[in-house]
Amino acid sequence: MSRVGKYPVTVPSGVTVQITGANLTVKGKLGESELVIRDDVEVTLDGNLVWVKPKNESKPARMMWGTTRALINNMVKGVSEGFTVNLEINGVGYRAAVEGKTLKLALGYSHDVNYPIPEGITMKCDKPTAISISGRDRQIVGQIAAEIRAFRGPEPYKGKGIKYETETILRKEGKKK
């Protein structure tokens, strides 16, 4: 039995949820998101609560029960508050800057790395060593953060590279004489 799916999704004020057939649409101040509901689950709207229930007791229906509830919760939170991932850059000469619709990264290569900022995503560099990525879709925000981190991942000896703000790098001891 799903521990996540048992609880309803609370819809805050300013967010509207519509269920039409197999489509669920969520609208809020940050935009609109849409989800195609699978046949294994049943989604109902009761006031400001969205309930998700499996249609039968098969394993795929029980698996999609919690997954669908989590997706709906992320959509509701995304259109009302949004999601933010913060990255830190460590290393001498490593820096980032937002220029128009491009994130420009100097990461110790012979060239600068230019990353185009997709639609619906906002990036800010308050300091040259900090990147803030925000948007309404949790999956896309996390994917972009992972792609930027992959340009120069943190290394364990000096800790240089791009890392998540909450990430701790396990440091290794260098060579001994």
What do you see in this structure?
The protein is of the alpha+beta class and 177 residues long. It folds into two domains: 9-80, Outer Surface Protein A, domain 3 (Alpha-Beta Complex); 83-164, Ribosomal protein L6 (Outer Surface Protein A, domain 3, Alpha-Beta Complex). It is 20% helix and 38% strand. It contains two helices and 13 strands. It has helices at 59-80, 138-151; strands at residues 9-10, 16-20, 23-28, 31-36, 41-46, 49-54, 83-90, 95-99, 102-106, 113-116, 121-124, 130-135, 161-164. The strands form four sheets. Strands 11-12-7-13 form a four-stranded antiparallel beta sheet, covered by helices on one side. A hairpin with a 2-residue loop joins strand 2 (16-20) and strand 3 (23-28). The longest helix is centred in the middle third of the chain and has 22 residues, at 59-80. The radius of gyration is 21 Å and the shape is elongated. The N and C termini lie far apart (58 Å). The mean pLDDT is 92.
